[in-house]
């Protein structure tokens, strides 16, 4: 594995770790200042402050006791300093707005990451639930 691949995998690991610690300050630092994030229901947050605020709000409520597990990650370099990173995830311990524990969810997180000044960061993120057919 190349040093860049290792650094990108470190970003993915930090995403999972900061989510599970509900540390949205560290979570937000994984993104560039002008990043954007589209969540599983189509909400589109623009800029690191908006991404941070949205995740702070959800981690104070429905994701307060959640645990994210990333089981598989693929990295495809578009250029030496740009890659598309897809990660399969499972989420447990999240609740409905009424506080009821929900069933585990699985999905795919697609991140576009860029390297600038020796640091890899997320510039665009799209999260998708995997829905059972039928």
Spatial ordering of strands, largest sheet: 2-1-6-5-4-3
Helix and strand element order: HHEEHEEEE
Mean pLDDT: 96
Helix share of residues? 25-40%
Taking pLDDT < 50 over at least 5 consecutive residues as the criterion, the unreliable ranges are none
In CATH's first tier, which class applies? Alpha Beta
Query: Proportion of β residues?
Result: 35-45%
Alpha-carbon distance between the two ends: 39 Å
Number of domains: 1
Large-scale geometry: globular
The biggest sheet amounts to: 6 strands, mixed
What does this structure look like?
The protein is an alpha+beta fold. It has a single domain (3-129), classed as Nuclear Transport Factor 2, Chain: A, CATH 3.10.450.50. The chain contains 3 helices and 6 strands. The longest helix is centred in the first third of the chain and has 19 residues, at 3-21. The mean pLDDT is 96.
Give structural attributes.
134 residues, alpha+beta, Nuclear Transport Factor 2, Chain: A, six-stranded mixed beta sheet, 27% helix, globular
Give the topology, please.
Elements: H1 3-21, H2 24-28, E1 31-38, E2 44-46, H3 48-59, E3 67-79, E4 82-92, E5 105-116, E6 119-129
Parallel strand pairs: 1-6
Antiparallel strand pairs: 1-2, 3-4, 4-5, 5-6
In short:
The chain has helices at 3-21, 24-28, 48-59; strands at 31-38, 44-46, 67-79, 82-92, 105-116, 119-129.
């Amino acid at each position: 594995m190349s040093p860049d691949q290792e650094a990108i995998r470190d970003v993915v690991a930090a995403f999972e770790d900061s989510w599970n610690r509900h540390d949205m300050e560290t979570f937000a630092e994984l993104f560039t200042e002008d990043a954007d994030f589209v969540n599983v229901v189509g909400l589109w947050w623009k800029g690191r402050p908006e991404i941070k605020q949205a995740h702070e709000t959800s981690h104070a409520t429905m994701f307060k006791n959640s645990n994210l597990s990333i089981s598989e990650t693929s990295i495809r370099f578009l250029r030496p300093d740009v890659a598309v990173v897809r990660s399969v995830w499972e989420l447990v311990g999240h609740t409905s707005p009424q506080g009821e524990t929900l069933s585990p969810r699985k999905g795919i997180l697609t991140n576009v990451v860029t390297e600038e000044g020796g640091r890899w960061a997320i510039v665009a993120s799209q999260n998708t639930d995997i829905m059972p057919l039928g």
